[in-house]
TrEMBL record:
Cited PANTHER family: HLYD FAMILY OF SECRETION PROTEINS, MULTIDRUG RESISTANCE PROTEIN MDTA
Organism: Chryseobacterium ginsengisoli
Superkingdom, taxonomy of origin: Bacteria
Protein name: RND efflux pump membrane fusion protein barrel-sandwich domain-containing protein
Length: 308
């Protein structure tokens, strides 16, 4: 009986060891496959021109708006404009009749019809532009000097840009800048004025860019772009660069063979929306860097290159 029990126990042990031995290679293979991260790679370039572009908002503005004022006390008898109408300098906008003329005009005309007294005066536009505001209508009684309407001065139209003072000399040296509107229309803006004051908080200077007034509405926001710096040098795709949480150190994952990537620290230079200049770091144009799948990879990570 003991021999039978011993034989059963030995058989169980041998079977268990065999099963473990048979399953071990499969587990190791699965573990190795799991550690490989699928990545795509690219080569650094030394021929790309890197322009560090600065983009600022530009707001359409009329710097000068003229008030149309009544030239006497009286009633508005005629009005030739409506809101948003374009008017020329010197064109008649309003007709006024004094209170005395309204009261005495008919009586005097009855006494002498040849006198043709009506006490009417006209108010003309002080500038060429658009009617931005109307304060009265026909029949209203107004005082001498009261504002009847507001006219934008077309000659003062332009786009105002708040330029950081550090970029002011770059702007001045260009003379003109393209302005891109929301509908992708591009206008060439000429630098007309630089305001002689700086905002105390933002340290920006207001710069006026004049453009042909092609019925552009006031307060429309466009953008201007200009190059802060331009450089050639070794660069990598922007997606290849990884940083720590504080963005105080940067690195790329470089392949030393087809399956191993090592962490290579770099110093960044000029940065664009597609490329980052490498000012220092152990990289050449023959090295392969990971551009996708590199996030979270440890040093000497095992990877698998994804075929295009």
């Amino acid at each position: 009986m003991r021999k039978i029990i011993t034989l059963i126990i030995v058989s169980i042990v041998v079977f268990s060891c065999k099963k473990t031995a048979d399953s071990a290679p499969a587990d190791v293979t699965a573990s190795d496959a799991k550690l490989k991260t699928l990545v795509t790679v690219a080569y650094p370039s030394d021929t790309a021109q890197l322009n560090n572009m600065i983009t600022l908002n530009a707001t359409a503005t009329y710097l000068l708006k003229s008030d149309v004022k009544a030239n006497s006390n009286g009633y508005i008898t005629k009005m030739t404009i409506k809101l948003a109408d374009r008017v020329g300098k010197g064109s008649v906008l309003f007709g006024l009749q004094t209170k005395e003329a309204r009261a005495l005009g008919n009586t005097i005309n009855k006494l002498d019809k040849s006198f043709r007294f009506n006490g009417a005066t006209t108010v003309v536009s002080p500038a060429t532009g658009y009617v931005a505001m109307l304060n009265h209508q026909i029949g209203d009684y107004v005082q001498d000097g009261e504002v009847l309407a507001n006219i934008t001065d077309a000659s003062s139209f332009g786009f105002v840009v708040d330029v950081p003072y550090e970029y002011l000399q770059i702007i001045k040296s260009k003379g003109s800048l393209p302005i891109t509107l929301p509908d992708n229309t591009v206008l060439q803006g000429r630098i007309a004025k630089v305001m002689p004051s700086v905002d105390a908080v933002s340290q920006t200077v207001k710069v006026l860019l004049q453009v042909p007034n092609n019925n552009i509405p006031e307060n429309l926001i466009g953008t201007i772009s200009f190059s802060k710096t331009s450089a050639y040098g070794l660069s990598v795709p922007k997606m290849a660069v990884v940083s720590d949480e504080t963005q105080s150190s940067f690195w790329v994952m470089k392949l030393i063979n087809d399956t191993t990537a090592v962490k290579t620290e770099i110093t960044k230079g000029v940065e664009t929306d597609k490329y980052i200049q490498i000012k220092s770091g152990n990289l050449t144009t023959k090295d392969r860097v990971i551009i996708s799948g590199n996030f979270g990879l440890s040093d000497t990570a095992t990877v698998k290159i994804q075929k295009p």
